[in-house]
Amino acid sequence: MLGLKLPTDPRWADIAEKNIEEILIDHAYCEQKAASTAISLIVTYPEYSELVTAMTALAREEMGHFKMVHEKLLERGFKMGWDRKDEYVIKLREFFPKGGSRATQLVHRLLIAGLIEARSCERFRLLSEQLEDQELAKFYRDLMVSEANHYTMFLKFARKFGEDRKVVDQKWQELLDYEAEIMKDLGNKESIHG
């Protein structure tokens, strides 16, 4: 369903289980960044009313998720700690060339956001299936559904606002291929995307 070309090595879930504090901290920052991305899209592309409406709802939802993850941290006696660079996202953003029309830049941002949501959804599924902590497993199962909806929303908007659906779909496939290469070097760290 997600279209990912390289699934996460299932051993990543073992790394996550053994480092659940780091996973929760990283996850909290991922939710903040997702909300920030939604707000950035509103600020940068205010003329796309349908997008603004959807991103307003998304920012609210992502901050709700942040609150939930932060509460999980506090329940376990953990603190947020400092944000870490997300190597995965940094590498994804290198894929598309800088410049181009506003519409092209928007499509690129939407495709990257969609792929981040798809990978997050896949990681949440692994956590929901493999964590021994049943409360956290259920927590990630519930979040997995939201992430899948976000992925499809971003892809839908990219196809809608792109000038040519075939070009957008080709870019999506090329981005998926590139992401599979990135993932060959990731999946062994205690972070949501790492």
TrEMBL record:
A Pfam match: MiaE
GO terms for biological process, alphabetical: tRNA modification
Species whose genome carries this gene: Christiangramia lutea
Name recorded for this polypeptide: tRNA-(Ms[2]io[6]A)-hydroxylase
InterPro entries the UniProt entry points to: Ferritin-like, Ferritin-like_SF, tRNA-Hydrxlase_MiaE
Top-rank lineage group of the source organism: Bacteria
CDD domains noted in UniProt: MiaE (cd07910)
UniProt GO molecular function: tRNA 2-(methylsulfanyl)-N(6)-isopentenyladenosine(37) hydroxylase activity
SUPFAM superfamilies: Ferritin-like
